[in-house]
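Question thread 4412

I'm putting together a teaching handout and wanted feedback from people who do this every day. The idea is simple: show students a protein as raw sequence, then show them the structure tokens that encode its fold, then repeat with a second protein so they can compare. Below is the first pair exactly as I plan to print it.
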Amino acid sequence: FVIFFVIEKIKRDGDRDKNAGKESVYQPSISLLFHLCFHILYLTRRDCAKLKKRIAQLTQKLKALESQTAHILLQGNQHHDNFSYEQLVIQMRGQDSRLKEAHSILNRSEVVDPPSSTERVVLGTQVTFLKNGERMTWEIVGFGQSEPEHHHLAYNTPLASLLIGKRVGDSFSGMTATKPVQIEILDVSLGNGADENVDSTT
């Protein structure tokens, strides 16, 4: 399985949640740059549709900020002394950066069909496992698409890289960020996204 071997080569570094001190499911910016430059990025159809929706939202917000900035300039205010203008410029730069990153991911991505088998943990499957004795369930989703509140874990995260390729009954140890973990795979099933009929071409 080609995707499995590509994913297995992904860096297993991670960062910490800034607020709660918990292990983060997001990749550090250095690893994000590494992937954007050197790897094909994989998305499910649902991930692709979500990313395109995000790009549309970011584009709309950027246009709104540009409109507000133009309005301030038309009023004849000295922009170098105008706090509101400076704040808008900062917001525009941040919005533009996020938009460029989203476009970069989309342009380098390959859409993957739902898995035909749940024999192993792969992109598009849902896996239930014990991590240091704690039971948890995550759905393995596309690059950069982690959503902890929905139990979506991007395949390029440190934890997912330990899970990819494993079978029910596998028990193993590994590292997430700087923390050693003991994992036992309890169940592998199709992820919820596999049941969604999403058109990723629009």
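The second pair follows. I'd like the answer to focus on this one:
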Amino acid sequence: TVQDIESKSHAGLEAVLSSCAFVGFADPVFVLLQHQTRLYLCNVRVLCEELLRQQVFMRFSNFDRIALQEPVPLRAMLEQASRLVREKHAQAYVDEGGRVAPPWTADACMEALMRMREMLAEYFCIEITADARVAALPCLVDGHAPDLAFLPLFFYFLAAEVNWQLENECFHGIARQLARFYVPRPPLLEEPLRLLVLPIPF
């Protein structure tokens, strides 16, 4: 909640970020910020992800709507993302005992998202139609839209990594997945996932 965010804020860090000066990029991921007489090297992705996560709660149930020109078939995206996860990240599903926990299937993801689609639309403006097409996404920051090349992975991990059973963990999990999806990505980091590009128009 907003109250949780405010209660856990760090006064020193807040002071630095609220009155710093942008110096420049050190590389595609890190920037230099100046506060008084000190220079800080900051990971843009980490900062942006936390900002976006907090914006989800600031705009909770009151998002502006980013409508897609044509609703996008959810199943096709989940099948594509599931295939990529199986091919590229198989080792991530091996536990300490060497047992393999298979990644979520497209069917399992589909079932979870369709079951929760009314809640996703009401609180997060993630609109999935009754015939399983993605129609709209939330606006987290005015003037910023996510890279739709990552839309399949977003819905896959939204289904697979959110705890749908506990309300508080569910909301925080959705906020985290939205933040990871919307965070700007340096060009070099986009290349491994360009396999996921679909004709998804705004």
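Top answer:
Good format. For the second protein you could add a caption like this: Residues 96 and 154 are 27 Å apart (CA to CA). The beta strands are 21-25, 30-35, 38-43, 64-73, 127-128, 133-139.
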